[in-house]
Design a protein that fits this description.
single chain, alpha/beta, two-stranded antiparallel sheet, 8 strands, about 40% helix, about 20% strand, globular
């Protein structure tokens, strides 16, 4: 069965990304079309990227924390990124985690669920560019939540009902693209 990782995009105290990831997983688990799991960046405790320039291409990692991260991303067939917007971009924790790897990401599909003062759309667009370089196909459907209307006091996640339909459409696309890219991953 296809394995889809729902990757949290923040590691800082008080973060909202885990709440959003749990909500997405609760929707995904009703589907029965893939095995979904939350991949919490905070659990991997990756230091600032300190690998030799060739490590991501050769998978010859020097940092002990890189190997568990590499194995986790490699075993997944596709991804849903929970992408908060910090200063009009992706979080440093998410960018750092992405930069540790290269081949593990290749020929897979991803969806993006963003949030921020403007729905996190600028961070999501930045993430699309990053993913393109890693040969990850990002799907069109993009649930975007507002810190002002989908969170109580900007901290307790209470999404509007309309977002569930957007998540379902995004998951439909992620699964279709993940399955379509399978032959490229089996080369």
């Amino acid at each position: 069965m296809t394995k889809i990782g729902i990757i949290t995009g923040s590691t800082r105290p008080g973060r909202n990304s885990l709440q959003v990831a749990q909500w997405v997983k609760s929707i995904a688990d009703k589907r029965g079309d893939a095995e979904y799991e939350i991949v919490d960046l905070k659990e991997f405790d990756l230091p600032m990227y300190a690998e030799p320039i060739s490590a991501a291409y050769s998978q010859d990692y020097q940092t002990p924390e890189a190997m568990p991260w590499s194995r986790k991303i490699a075993e997944l067939d596709g991804y849903v990124f929970i992408c908060p917007e910090y200063n009009h971009g992706v979080t440093s924790a998410l960018k750092n985690a992405i930069d540790y790897l290269y081949v593990e990401w290749n020929n897979k599909a991803a969806g993006i669920v963003s949030y921020g003062s403007s729905g996190g759309v600028r961070a999501a667009e930045a993430l699309r560019i990053i993913m393109a370089e890693l040969q990850v196909a990002t799907v069109r459907s993009h649930p975007a939540m507002s810190l002002f209307t989908d969170f109580e006091n900007m901290s307790e996640f209470k999404p509007a009902e309309v977002h569930e339909g957007s998540v379902t459409t995004m998951l439909d696309q992620v699964n279709a693209w993940t399955n379509a890219l399978q032959p490229l991953r089996n080369k």
